[in-house]
């Protein structure tokens, strides 16, 4: 009875909110097996792909643990680098959007600078392949998001710092929940591709400052696009 249809069923974010709300209310406690993908899809009245994306994001965030052949279980809270409370707060609260963009800029601009300093032919090829994939799938939101994620993770990896890479992975798991709603803005995908191209070109040239500037411009533009769709909130 506690699982009801959500209002914006096309957005995995709404499913994430609903699932984490149940966990925070202790309907499901650490160690509990949550209902199957099929059952959740029926209860929420959404497609199984929406449930799958939401559960996948919660696994990446460390809220759930996926066990092959068994299902998804609620994880015990941990004291990892980015705590569960911090990550959940960024994910679930519109009021934290500006703070999240600030964090993205601080982390990803430095990653882009380091990627340019550490540039390799393999890195440049991976970035260009991701951009080509984004151009090739203009109407497929999931494929576009996957290519976008690969682009940013490749840069985080190229920073050659495992903490940057870990934080970059966490950032992308949050991006996958929030940012797909901007795909319904007609110019979003074209502008995203252009912004990625500027970043990739600067990294390919080994231009650290230009790579950082291009990344900053992209993140601020992406944040602005999302902000236009998020309800006005009171900022602390």
Automatic annotation (TrEMBL):
Cited InterPro entries: GntR_C, TF_FadR/GntR_C, Tscrpt_reg_HTH_GntR, WH-like_DNA-bd_sf, WH_DNA-bd_sf
GO MF terms, alphabetically ordered: DNA binding
UniProt keyword Transcription regulation present: yes
Keywords: DNA-binding, Transcription, Transcription regulation
Keyword match Metal-binding: no
Pfam family, one: FCD
HTH gntR-type domain segment(s): 9-77
Protein name (database record): DNA-binding FadR family transcriptional regulator
Organism the protein comes from: Labrys wisconsinensis
């Amino acid at each position: 009875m506690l699982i009801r249809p959500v209002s914006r069923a096309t957005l995995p974010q709404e499913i994430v909110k609903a699932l984490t709300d149940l966990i925070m209310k202790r309907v499901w406690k650490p160690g509990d097996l949550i209902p199957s993908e099929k059952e959740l899809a029926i209860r929420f009245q959404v497609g199984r792909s929406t449930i799958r994306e939401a559960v996948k994001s919660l696994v990446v965030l460390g809220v759930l643990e996926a066990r092959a052949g068994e299902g998804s279980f609620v994880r015990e809270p941990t004291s990892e680098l980015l705590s569960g409370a911090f990550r959940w707060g960024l994910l679930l609260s519109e009021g934290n959007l500006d703070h999240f963009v600030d964090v993205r800029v601080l982390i990803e601009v430095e990653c882009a600078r380091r990627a340019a300093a550490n540039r390799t032919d393999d890195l440049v090829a991976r970035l260009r392949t991701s951009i080509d994939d984004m151009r090739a799938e203009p109407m497929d939101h999931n494929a576009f998001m996957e290519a976008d994620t690969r682009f940013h993770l490749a840069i985080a990896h190229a920073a050659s710092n495992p903490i940057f890479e870990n934080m970059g992975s966490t950032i992308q798991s949050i991006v996958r929940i929030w940012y797909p709603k901007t795909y319904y803005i007609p110019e979003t995908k074209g502008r995203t591709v252009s912004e990625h191209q500027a970043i990739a070109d600067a990294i390919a040239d080994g231009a650290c400052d230009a790579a950082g500037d291009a990344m900053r411009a992209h993140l601020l533009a992406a944040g602005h696009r999302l902000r236009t769709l998020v309800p006005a909130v009171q900022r602390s």
